[in-house]
Design brief:
The chain has 2 domains: about 270 residues, Glycogen Phosphorylase B (Rossmann fold); about 180 residues, Rossmann fold (3-Layer(aba) Sandwich). Helix content is about 35%, strand content about 20%. It contains 17 helices and 20 strands. A hairpin with a 6-residue loop joins strand 4 and strand 5. Helix 9 packs across helix 15. The two termini are about 20 Å apart. The structure holds adenosine-5'-diphosphate. Adenosine-5'-diphosphate binds next to helix 1, strand 15, strand 16 and helix 11.
Amino acid sequence: MKKPLKILFATAEVAPLMSTGGLADVAAALPKALHKAGHDVRLILPFYQKLPRLPESCRRNMCLAHLGTHTAYGCLWETTLPDSEIPLYLVEHENYFGRMAPYGDGNHEYGDNAERFCFFSHAALDGIAGTGWKPDVVHCHDWPTAPMPLSLKTTFANHPVWAGVPSVYTIHNLAYQGRYGAEKMASTGFGPELFNPECLEYHGDLNLMKGAITSADRISTVSPRYAREIQTIEYGEGLDGILRNRKDILSGILNGADYSLWDPTTDPHIPENYSASDRAGKAVCKQAFQKQLGLPEKDVPLFGIVSRLVWQKGIDLVMESVLGLPEGVAQVAVLGTGERGVEEGLKHLESQRPDSVRVMLDFNVPIAHQLQAASDFFLMPSRYEPCGLSQFYSFAYGSIPIVRRSGGLADTVADCNPVNLKTGVANGFSFVPLTSHSLSARLQQAVELYGDPAAFKAVQDAGMALDFSWNRSCETYIELYRECIEAA
Ligand code: ADP
């Protein structure tokens, strides 16, 4: 048997403590799977204001970061991830993290995000070194922890704890890169010699993610297809060239679903539990949800959306295509928050279709579960989708996904085309052209499928039978960790 690994898992979000989307779910579920597999995995997160205060006994050591213009001092705390025995370290700094949101207020990013997250990355390494625990590998995620792989290769390259410790960098969404004006370079804690096109510079700007891509020992992203897509101009967000240069260490590992939270047979948030073999409870959930939302309790297909309401998610296509459906043939329920324009567009749609559309501008986990349980179809017409988690949940809850064929959605949804229907693998609808016409055609097909109960059940069955639990992907991450530890 191979020796268990010591893994430091650095993230800006983890459910249920701080969450803006899929990263938080992954940052809770993957460590739980690693812990279950016998590894010593520990998380490190900024100590945001919204997190519960801890007793003095949880206070560990001081930590600091030299940020060029000044040295910033913080404090490391230790607790455990809720509902687990996994150690969770928190980096406290009142000025940087004593705020309600992780990245910004409303549509505006905090102006000092580069400095805040450079502080977090350097101070986390300094603080962990003070605990006496020495990880075998550091696993970082997205732009907020992007400074860490570079810090390991520069500031901490000769450090007694960190020298030779490799890093894995996972890209959950390439669109958010931590890109700022060059003037922010001075407070990153990195020397000016790193501000060059081979490292932190991107067309004259500072780009934190680029620094991680050029310095991490392994790069992964959250689905095999997205790993290929991001090496193309279309999906590369300007970093496709640099990703192609690193293609030998770049791989795609599909995210998993945490079925301890998302299982209709045990879900405490829904009015009646149900399973693939007894779906009666799903009808109860649908009726209760229609009532809760003030929708007519009619037997028409209910289309659901739970999403960040941002351009990426293609919600604009939904607005046009829903209006293309004849009135009364279907209902639509949306839960989400995000860009004002998208929120207003949805509210306008609701006012145009008061008898069939409900829009809840809220971030609400119980309602997200109720919506998955109540809906017959789940819409994800994303312009791009690194993996997507909601389709895993919709499969489990018997809500047939209707998706744009990109990234992880392409890797997981098998379209109801004649071949897939014949072989019994069809589990959803997918389309390619980014037009409301394409989505309309799929909505129309979905309405027809709903009208044929046997065919509808067959597609629902195929989705409910799928297993996207973390075990398989967890094994692949462990192989990746071992590979880079051995190569280091
Ligand atoms: P992304 O990470 O791009 O936001 P994913 O599909 O990977 O998209 O993950 C979205 C996660 O966030 C899902 O668990 C979904 O249920 C949750 N979520 C998104 N919006 C809301 C909301 N308004 N209320 C509750 N949960 C939400």
